[in-house]
């Protein structure tokens, strides 16, 4: 998943970024809302937002984003543990609320839960004909045989899985897979999509000419 | 030593009223005595005078000496009230009683003729001449009778005063009770009041004298609310300042555990366990600090708390009846600390039971402590001093029990270590 982490504490931010990166997530880490502004318009699979930031309230920032119609799943990461705070956080647009200190393993588990909700299924496994994808195990099987994907191939597959039925533009896919400010070769997405098709079958990823890519209908 | 209760306003006022009433009665009686003494004397003298004037006419007709008693006696109209004598004062034979009332003495009331009032040993006498300076009429009254009249008058006045005073006492007692009632109502209002809600005003003072009290309470409530607000803000900052680095430590350790060679992993895992213990203590401290102003007791099932505590390495044995009334966050913090202690003392199983009303007993199978050490810890808790060696945990648990109006008891057990959280029965928050 491509994640936007907004956390002003260096030790925690770095720890979470590295922990989540090991889990295969692409994490853009911002310490302030000012830094977040530079990521305006970037597509993310989930937002990890600290409530109290040096230059404002993460909750207010999230509320503004929701008001503008953005539905990206958001997890509040905060030291505020009162019932009133939790209710306020959830009512302001957070999909989940994690009180510090939390174990990063729990955050990772909640992100998996978020991804299941986005994918529209409680089951972590999705089937596309002969292809079976396990979002938690990050494993893909074709006709029961394990198929190894590179991290970028998996990232493209996951980005499409998290947007079932939606067309994802090439530009968005580039940013979702590689992250903010990365330099890719202009045909990198086509190359990785082609590799995916080769491994999983041509019908797995559909090209919508001039717009982007879409995943085949699954079960 | 038990402190004596403070003096009661009502009792003191009653005592003061009684004392003043007694003094009042004595003063009134003395005043009545002094006033009535002169007035009654004067009145009785007037009576003697009037009686003498009344008798003068009839008794002027008495015959000369030797014929006394033949005249019609006028004493019927004044009998019992005073005595009279008609005395002839003769140069040759001295004073001689010519006629007298039944109460009069046999000897002349005055041996020498004289007019006006005079006193003898037993009589108050008034004399007026009847004829040619030889014959005198003496009207007299005994001193005893005059004293008796005086005493009766004074007694009547004193009794009337006493009756009025007693009635006034009863009325004043009722008035004291009535006037103290606003104080009682104020106390009840304060007892039910919410220190966190300065808006719950006392309303207008029922008596002018209570206005300064109302103002002082309102000011105190305002300051208390301000202080609570500041403390809450401080707790928020403290929570952020403590929790965020703890989360950072845990995240860094989680990454380090993934990246480090296998030989380092046990050491890193121990560091992570210690960090989590620190997290529990911080959570308990924050919960306790936050709850010091207002506890939120509720009916809860102990079994529901255990999964929330996320304790690893302990098995739990739960009783059938597990319902308690307590603040859930505080009880969770207390249990976390007790379980943490158990883990540090090698326990693998925790037996939970409810041996009494709102008493939770936590008994582990760890190494426990010696009887002497147990007593030392219990005494330290009783004195609210550092349990040195027992860790911050037990002191925190005791503080949590005290916040509930109870205490932490460490009963003697044969194996392991036991702690009893006595949580005073409080009504669940509405």
TrEMBL record, chain A:
Gene this protein is translated from: qseB_1
Domain OmpR/PhoB-type, residue spans: 123-217
Domain Response regulatory intervals: 2-115
Tree of life domain: Bacteria
UniProt organism field: Candidatus Accumulibacter adjunctus
UniProt xrefs under InterPro entries: CheY-like_superfamily (IPR011006), OmpR/PhoB-type_DNA-bd (IPR001867), Sig_transdc_resp-reg_C-effctor (IPR016032), Sig_transdc_resp-reg_receiver (IPR001789), WalR-like (IPR039420), WH-like_DNA-bd_sf (IPR036388)
Keyword terms: DNA-binding, Phosphoprotein
Chain coiled-coil ranges: none
PROSITE patterns noted in UniProt: OMPR_PHOB, RESPONSE_REGULATORY
Record-level GO BP terms: regulation of DNA-templated transcription
PTM sites of type 4-aspartylphosphate: 50
PANTHER family according to UniProt: REGULATOR OF RPOS, TRANSCRIPTIONAL REGULATORY PROTEIN CUTR
GO molecular function, one term: transcription cis-regulatory region binding
One Gene Ontology CC term in the entry: protein-DNA complex
Protein's recorded name: Transcriptional regulatory protein QseB
Pfam families, per the entry: Response_reg (PF00072), Trans_reg_C (PF00486)
Keyword Phosphoprotein: yes
DNA-binding region: 123-217
UniProtKB/TrEMBL annotation, chain B:
All copies of domain Histidine kinase, residue ranges: 237-427
Keywords: ATP-binding, Kinase, Membrane, Nucleotide-binding, Phosphoprotein, Transferase, Transmembrane, Transmembrane helix, Two-component regulatory system
Membrane topology: Multi-pass membrane protein
GO molecular function, one term: phosphorelay sensor kinase activity
Domain of life: Bacteria
Compartments where found: Membrane
Record-linked InterPro entries: HATPase_C_sf, HATPase_dom, His_kinase_dom, HisK_dim/P_dom, HisK_dim/P_sf, Sig_transdc_His_kin-like_C, TCS_sensor_his_kinase
Pfam families with a match to the protein in the record: HATPase_c (PF02518), HisKA (PF00512)
EC category: transferase
Protein's name according to its UniProt entry: histidine kinase
Organism: Candidatus Accumulibacter adjunctus
Underlying gene: qseC_1
């Amino acid at each position: 998943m491509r994640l936007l982490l907004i956390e002003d504490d260096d030790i925690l931010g770095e720890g979470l970024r590295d922990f989540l990166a090991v889990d295969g997530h692409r994490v853009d880490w911002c310490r302030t809302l000012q830094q977040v502004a530079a990521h305006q318009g970037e597509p993310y699979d989930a937002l990890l937002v600290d409530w109290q930031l040096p230059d404002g309230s993460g909750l207010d920032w999230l509320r503004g984003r929701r008001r503008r119609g953005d539905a990206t799943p958001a997890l509040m990461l905060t030291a505020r543990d009162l019932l009133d705070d939790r209710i306020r956080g959830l009512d302001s647009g957070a999909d989940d609320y994690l009180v510090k200190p939390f174990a990063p393993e729990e955050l990772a588990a909640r992100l998996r839960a978020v991804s299941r909700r986005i994918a529209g299924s409680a089951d972590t496994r999705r089937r596309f004909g002969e292809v079976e994808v396990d979002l938690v195990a990050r494993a893909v099987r074709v006709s029961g045989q394990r198929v190894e994907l590179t991290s970028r191939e998996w990232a493209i597959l996951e980005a499409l899985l998290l947007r079932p039925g939606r067309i994802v533009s090439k530009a968005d896919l580039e940013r979702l897979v590689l992250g903010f400010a990365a330099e890719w070769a202009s045909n990198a997405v086509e190359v990785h999509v082609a590799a995916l098709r080769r491994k999983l079958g041509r019908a797995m990823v559909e090209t919508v000419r001039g717009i982007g890519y879409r995943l085949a209908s699954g079960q | 030593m038990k402190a004596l209760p403070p003096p009661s306003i009502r009792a003191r006022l009653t005592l003061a009223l009684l004392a003043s009433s007694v003094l009042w009665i004595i003063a009134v009686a003395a005043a009545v005595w002094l006033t009535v003494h002169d007035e009654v004397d004067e009145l009785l003298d007037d009576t003697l005078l009037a009686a003498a004037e009344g008798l003068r006419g009839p008794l002027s007709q008495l015959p000369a000496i030797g014929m006394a008693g033949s005249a019609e006696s006028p004493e019927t109209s004044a009998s019992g009230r005073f005595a009279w004598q008609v005395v002839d004062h003769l140069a040759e034979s001295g004073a001689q009683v010519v006629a007298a009332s039944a109460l009069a003495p046999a000897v002349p009331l005055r041996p020498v003729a004289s007019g006006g009032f005079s006193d003898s040993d037993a009589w108050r006498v008034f004399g007026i001449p009847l004829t040619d300076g030889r014959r005198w009429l003496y009207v007299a009254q005994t001193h005893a009778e005059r004293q008796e009249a005086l005493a009766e008058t004074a007694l009547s006045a004193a009794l009337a005063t006493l009756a009025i005073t007693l009635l006034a006492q009863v009325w004043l007692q009722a008035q004291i009770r009535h006037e103290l009632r606003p104080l009682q109502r104020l106390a009840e209002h304060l007892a039910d009041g919410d220190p966190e809600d300065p808006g719950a005003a006392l309303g207008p003072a029922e008596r002018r004298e209570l206005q300064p009290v109302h103002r002082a309470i309102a000011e105190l409530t305002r300051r208390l609310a301000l202080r609570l607000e500041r403390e809450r803000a401080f707790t928020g900052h403290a929570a952020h300042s403590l929790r965020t680095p703890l989360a950072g430590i845990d995240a860094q350790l989680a990454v380090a555990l993934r990246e480090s060679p296998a030989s380092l992993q046990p050491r890193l895992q121990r560091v992570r366990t210690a960090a989590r213990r620190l997290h529990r203590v911080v959570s308990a401290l924050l919960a306790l600090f936050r709850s010091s102003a207002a506890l939120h007791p509720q009916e809860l099932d102990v079994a529901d708390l255990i999964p929330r505590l996320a304790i690893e390495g302990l098995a739990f044995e739960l009783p059938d009846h597990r319902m308690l009334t307590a603040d859930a966050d505080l009880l969770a913090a207390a249990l976390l600390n007790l379980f943490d202690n158990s883990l540090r003392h090698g326990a693998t199983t925790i037996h939970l039971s409810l041996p009494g009303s709102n008493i939770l007993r936590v008994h582990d199978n760890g190494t426990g402590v010696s009887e002497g050490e147990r007593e030392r810890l219990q005494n330290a808790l009783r004195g609210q001093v550092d349990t040195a060696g027992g860790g911050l945990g037990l002191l925190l648990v005791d503080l949590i029990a005290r916040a509930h109006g109870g205490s932490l008891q460490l009963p003697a057990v044969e194996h392991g270590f036991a702690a009893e959280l006595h949580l005073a029965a409080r009504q669940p928050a509405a």
